[in-house]
Design brief:
This protein is of the alpha/beta class. It contains 13 helices and nine strands. The chain has a seven-stranded parallel beta sheet, sandwiched between helices. It has a two-stranded parallel sheet with strand order 6-9. Strand 4, helix 3 (about 75-95) and strand 5 form a beta-alpha-beta unit. It is globular and about 55 Å long. The chain starts with a strand and ends in a 17-residue tail after the last helix.
Length: about 325
């Protein structure tokens, strides 16, 4: 298939541009920034450019977006223009061109305030049935774009699948307290338990979603590493996460002791990828146990694809108070 990949200069866009040819597809990269993986340079906010980009396209993978780290440097209107209007332009032109499938890369950030339980409550078990309560312009605009996708499926018959991805960026955490308390790799490996995925698995979810989009028609899917936890662990996770992790992956303690790492004392939410595995046939490779095994053998916890794509950053400047001002 000829597949239009928006955001081809970004983390996921580049990853898809690298692996889609290996699956027999012909990807065409689109981005507002030039890159070795970008053939079409322009803004999806411009309707004519969106129209021209659909020439000969069989499917669209829409990863282009303004992210949470841009909130400190971009106006709210910029988020509307890119995340909502840009998505609307692509949907309109995809429907007009008879494109067979449209994948929208969304985010678990749409859940917003639903992710953080009140003090004294168990951790939140986050499935697609949880009602989103966005807490910032990023989450609001991504949820609105999701709703546009659903509307185009219902009104125009466009096959649209939404992948709500968890963290996969390699940049430092935006919370100073996390950066100060944990080595970067330590924090990221901890997150594989409940809120992170390797970019190889994120990309493979998009590949299988492309294969299933026409038969499914419309669906929303959480894309995150498979958690070892069960719903019955939620109360203990909130007050003593290390004891729960010890039951499922006891070997982590020796590995962490050798590296001088620590487990988070509390985990407040768990992303559940069961629907994506069952309905899409997605088979993620990188979970916490796998990562611990790799580290224990002296290997990098990241996939070869994650290493190849590397860090993109979100801004061209360095900020005094962290990697990005949010």
């Amino acid at each position: 298939m000829r597949i239009l990949v928006t955001g081809s200069a970004g983390h996921l866009g580049e990853a898809l541009m690298r692996i889609l040819p290996l699956e027999g597809h012909y990807p065409v990269g689109l981005d507002i920034k030039p890159s070795p993986f970008t053939q079409l340079v322009g803004s999806i906010g411009e309707r004519d450019f969106a129209r021209e980009s659909m020439a000969g396209v069989d499917a669209v993978v829409h990863t282009a977006t303004l992210h949470k780290p841009h909130m400190g440097t971009h106006a709210r209107q910029d988020f509307v223009d890119t995340n909502i209007t840009g998505t609307l332009n692509l949907l309109e032109e995809a429907a007009e061109a008879g494109v067979g499938a449209f994948l929208f890369t969304s985010t678990t950030s749409v859940f917003g305030r639903a992710l953080t339980p009140s003090s004294g409550c168990p951790a939140a078990w986050i499935t697609e049935d949880v009602v989103p309560v966005p807490k910032n312009i990023y989450g609001i605009t991504k949820l609105a774009a999701e709703q546009l996708c659903e509307w185009f499926h219902r009104e125009r018959g466009l096959a649209c699948l939404i992948l709500r991805t968890s963290r996969f960026f390699p940049e430092a955490d935006d919370r100073k307290e996390t950066r100060d308390a944990y080595a970067d790799a330590n924090a990221k490996v901890n997150e594989f338990l409940y809120r992170r995925a390797d970019i190889e698995d994120i990309a493979s979810a998009h590949i299988v979603a492309l294969q299933k989009a026409r038969s499914i028609g419309f669906g929303r899917y959480i894309v995150s590493a498979t958690t070892p936890f069960a719903a019955g662990d939620l109360a203990e996770l909130r007050v003593n996460a290390p004891s729960v992790v010890r039951r499922y992956v006891p070997e982590y303690e020796d590995v962490y002791a050798r590296l001088g790492w620590r487990m988070f004392p509390s985990i407040d939410r768990v992303y559940v990828n069961e629907r994506a595995r069952n309905e899409l046939g997605w088979r993620p490779r990188y979970d916490f146990a796998d990562v611990i095994d790799r580290i224990g053998r002296g290997e990098d916890y990241r996939s070869a694809l994650a290493i190849a794509v590397g860090s993109k950053g979100y801004h061209d400047v360095v900020f005094e108070d962290g990697p990005y001002p949010v």
